[in-house]
Amino acid sequence: xxxxxxxxxxxxxxxxxxxxxxxxIALTIRQDIIKSLVLAKSGHPGxxxxxxxxMSVLFFGSVMKYDPSNSDWSERDRFVLSAGxxxxxxxxxxxxxxxxxxxxxxxxRKYGSRLQxxxxxxxxxxxxxxxxxxxxxxxxxxxxxxxxxWIIDKNDRKVFCITGDGELQEGASWEAAMAAxxxxxxxxxxxxxxxxxxIDGRVTDILSVYPLKEKFEAFNFDVxxxxxxxxxxxQAAFDKFEENHKNNGLPTCxxxxxxxxxxxxxxNDEYKWHGNPPNEEQAExxxxxxx
Length: 291
What we know:
- This protein is of the alpha/beta class.
- Helices cover 38% and strands 11% of the residues.
- The chain contains 9 helices and 7 strands, in the order ααβααβαβββααβαβα.
- Strands 1-2-3-7-6 form a 5-stranded parallel β-sheet, with helices on both faces. A two-stranded antiparallel ribbon has the order 4-5.
- The longest helix has 19 residues, at 22-40.
- It is globular, with a radius of gyration of 18 Å.
- The mean pLDDT is 96.
């Protein structure tokens, strides 16, 4: 491969930031995604690029409580990537938060790597709370975590979970929603990556899941619709979730309107980039835009 791939060791501290500071974080993560995937020669670029801005605020905007030096800290909040195929964005985010060396991003999908195509608890990678990727199951596990914290242990931990919108075609997703709403899990934040794209077309055309807001409200959620690329709106949505939690309100659903492949012109809003990695020439073009 003639394209030189380097991962700098830059780590971003978890703290409250000015909105323009997220640009550098999101740009670095998007670069990591492209670099990891061109080395792996397999994987999913579209979804990870699209949800990067939300992940940047979630992990680096003092939204979550966590300690990269002590990933099993008993008071930590938990994050579940139910849409496990979007693992490249989770791996980059964890590395940039200091959970493991950034150079390990080069091993994505390699034999023996801790960075497999879907997050695996058996890989013992710090920051991974559960195995995921079978769509609809990750969010069910996340609701179970929230139920344990809220109903049994009665602690102040929060649980955040990201699903795709196509994932909502799975019935298990709505069983999870019913449980969260019925038990009023105010410690649970469900983030829907609403890019209207799935592997073989538009969600609207394949099997429509709309209207999302009304459906989640019917399941007893407080629903917040945002532009998933607007840092102010993302932060405000997480602030509203925190308010709900403090006031013992309803579980929160953040419907984040995003664009698959955000940041790379030829991938933007193109469903064909759901699961096709860039080749070397495409990666070079993408990285030239991510500067």
